[in-house]
Amino acid sequence: MNANVDGPIPAWATARFGADAPELRLAIQMALLDTEAAMLESHVAGRSRKKFTAGAARMTNQYERLAEHVTALGIEGTELIKPGGTFYELVLVHNTLLYPYQVESADGFEPGDKWPKKLSAVVRELFALGQTPGPRWVEEPFAGLEGPEELVLRRPLAQLAERDPRPGLVLVPYEMNLSGLQRAWWGQANLLDEAGNLHWVTETSMLTNGAGAALVSVPDQRAGNDFASGDLPEIPVSSRSVADRALDVQPQVENDATENAAEGDEN
């Protein structure tokens, strides 16, 4: 897949990252592509139909490759922040933490309004650190019941919270499976409640749109009776994923009875 979303930079990104926004967008795109490559390479090297090795490679590389590509831009003030109690570091650029995470088959072209997995303590604290103005809780607590306890930030995040201005948080949700990187977005959101409901306070701007396969341009052919005239036959295509092709898994021909081809080992 190529980093295939260009066009205007969203207004919120320009306001936060200034003139560095275009380079940052490209760096995030390239980091996700590097993560895709690492995931697929590890899956092939593992010589297994299971997804354990690929999942571990994706999980670690999503942070490391993002830090690598953003740091390489040489933007003044860029730092690597280890939240504390985690195996990863987050990159801080323009006083903004970038947090990548995987989402499952988003409906339409939106990453969804709910955190896709169990809320960990560090994720809750990251949201609390970078909370933008807006609603925090979906509803008021019932009468006679105490509201949610105030979060106590771990030391590295508490030190960030003391900065003026306080750092922001930009989310980078993306879809990735054994067919590769599908779609990705970036934007800012507030955590509304302990159930993981989100309120996007910026538009969820696309970073990639899944158009990884290049379209072949065919010159306009005028109708005639030469050997190249007439309609091209329909060729059935293989339903193998990138990983299956690398592992030499036999292709399956798609036909009218095969409405949903399997994408690798993804469910």
Features:
two-stranded antiparallel ribbon; 8 strands; 6 helices; single chain; disordered C terminus; 267 residues; six-stranded mixed β-sheet; alpha+beta
Helical element count?
6
Q: Numbering strands along the chain, what is their spatial order in the largest sheet?
A: 1-2-3-4-5-8
Q: Mean pLDDT, as a whole number?
A: 78
Shape: globular
Strand-pairing-aware structural class: alpha+beta
Along the chain, the helix and strand elements come as HHHEEEHHEEEEEH
Q: Sketch the major β-sheet.
A: 6 strands, mixed
Level of helix content?
Answer: 25-40%
Measured between the Cα atoms of the first and last residue, the distance is 21 Å
Task: Kindly provide the radius of gyration, computed on alpha-carbon positions and rounded to a whole number of angstroms.
Answer: 22 Å
Assembly state: single chain
Strand coverage percent: 15-25%
The strand count comes to 8
Low-confidence stretches: 134-145, 211-239, 250-267
Could you walk me through the main structural features you see in this protein, from its secondary elements to its overall organization?
The protein has 267 residues and is α+β, with helices and mostly antiparallel strands. 28% of the residues lie in helices and 15% in strands. It is built from 6 helices and 8 strands, in the order H-H-H-E-E-E-H-H-E-E-E-E-E-H. It has helices spanning 11-17, 21-46, 52-71, 121-129, 155-161, 242-246; strands spanning 79-81, 90-93, 96-102, 168-177, 180-186, 189-191, 198-200, 205-208. The chain has a 6-stranded mixed β-sheet with strand order 1-2-3-4-5-8. The chain has a two-stranded antiparallel sheet with strand order 6-7. The radius of gyration is 22 Å and the shape is globular.
